[in-house]
Design a protein that fits this description.
The protein is α+β, with helices and mostly antiparallel strands and 143 residues long. The protein has helices spanning 18-29, 37-63, 133-141, and strands at residues 2-4, 7-9, 71-75, 78-87, 94-101, 104-105, 109-112, 117-119, 125-127. It has 2 domains: 2-63, no CATH class; 71-141, no CATH class. Helices cover 34% and strands 29% of the residues. The longest helix is centred in the middle third of the chain and has 27 residues, at 37-63. It is rod-shaped, with a radius of gyration of 36 Å.
Length: 143
C-alpha cells in the first residue's frame, strides 16, 4: 500500500522492498509519493518536544552552576561562617581557612587542630579562643 497524492493506493506488487515500492508507486501512478499528514504532524511534534527538552536542560545547567556556599554555625552566641577552607595534605590536622565572625571577614589563617593554635598571616601563633573559629573548625572537620 502506498500513499500517493494524499490518498492510499493498493500496491499490486507485494515482494518489492519499501524504497522500491515507493519508486514503483511514483512511476506507475504518475503521482508524488509522500507521507500521510498525521505522520508528519506527529513527527514535527516529537522534534519540537525533543528540541524543547534539550533547550530546557541546557538552560538549567547554565543557571544552576555550583555556587560557593559558606558553612555557617551559631557557636557560643557568635555567627561563625567558614568562607573558604583547605586541608593540608602533608599535615592533616592543619587547615587554611578564611572565616567570618559576626559578619566580619577575617584574613586567611592556618588552624592547627593538634596544638590548638592558629597561625596568623604574619606568622604570629595565637591559641584558640573559647568559642572561636578554631574550635569550630576542629570540631566540624576532625571527625
Amino acid at each position: 500500500m502506498c500513499y500517493v497524492d494524499e490518498k492510499w493506493v493498493e500496491n499490486p506488487v507485494h515482494e518489492i522492498s519499501s524504497s522500491r515500492t515507493q519508486h514503483f508507486c511514483t512511476a506507475a501512478l504518475g503521482g508524488v509519493v509522500s507521507t500521510p499528514p498525521s505522520v508528519v504532524i506527529i513527527a514535527e511534534f516529537l522534534v519540537r518536544r525533543f528540541f524543547s527538552v534539550v533547550c530546557l536542560t541546557i538552560a538549567i545547567w547554565i543557571v544552576a552552576l555550583p555556587t560557593n556556599a559558606a558553612t555557617c554555625r551559631k557557636y557560643f552566641d557568635r555567627d561563625i561562617c567558614i568562607l573558604d577552607i583547605k586541608r593540608s595534605a602533608k599535615y592533616y590536622w592543619e587547615y587554611r581557612a578564611v572565616v567570618s565572625i559576626d559578619s566580619q571577614r577575617q584574613p586567611l589563617q592556618k588552624y592547627d587542630c593538634r596544638h590548638q593554635v592558629r597561625i596568623q598571616h604574619n606568622g604570629k601563633v595565637v591559641p584558640f579562643e573559647k568559642g572561636g573559629a578554631g574550635e569550630l573548625i576542629c570540631k566540624l572537620l576532625d571527625r
